[in-house]
Amino acid sequence: EAGVAQSPRYKIIEKRQSVAFWCNPISGHATLYWYQQILGQGPKLLIQFQNNGVVDDSQLPKDRFSAERLKGVDSTLKIQPAKLEDSAVYLCASSLGLSAGELFFGEGSRLTVL
Amino acid sequence: KNEVEQSPQNLTAQEGEFITINCSYSVGISALHWLQQHPGGGIVSLFMLSSGKKKHGRLIATINIQEKHSSLHITASHPRDSAVYICAVRVNFGNEKLTFGTGTRLTIIP
Lengths: 114, 110
Fold this sequence. Notes:
The structure holds two protein chains of two kinds. In chain A, 0% of the residues lie in helices and 48% in strands. By secondary structure, chain A is an all-beta fold. The radius of gyration of chain A is 13 Å and the shape is globular. The N and C termini of chain A lie far apart (37 Å).
């Protein structure tokens, strides 16, 4: 079974530039999560989708971050414009349902903002 | 105070030692996850618990719902067990959001 796919693995940009990350969850997984993990900290939820609807985006900095999951399968997370403090690993995870089962994580996309 | 507290934050042990990592939480939960993250790597789910005890190879996870406490044990530890171990709880109200601990960095010395 294929795991959660993320790209790119690494991205270096200058502040005020934009960046987009892509995630393809495990087939059949209705719930998709984007997390931000700053070095030395635990993951912080940015946004949670159930199929193509947003369940929780309370911690998403909406002035610069956006995410979509238009067809309820893969998802993109965009940052525009990036700030230095956005340097982090962006993790995508999926699960069968909202309260069902294990979480499966992708390898993450490491963003460095200079 | 964080809703999920892990201890210790850092742990260094000799190969072969028995390892215990603790997780305490302050909210009602529907499940608790133990996750493993290797340096530069993604996160792997080790266990999902809602009661009792689970075992997989050299790893054992226990949870005491009344005491709001879980432990992850590693028997016969090996250098390849060196990683960050993260406890995450699924809070049982609303959308059952996951709340993460800050992790325990484990280093096993050969």
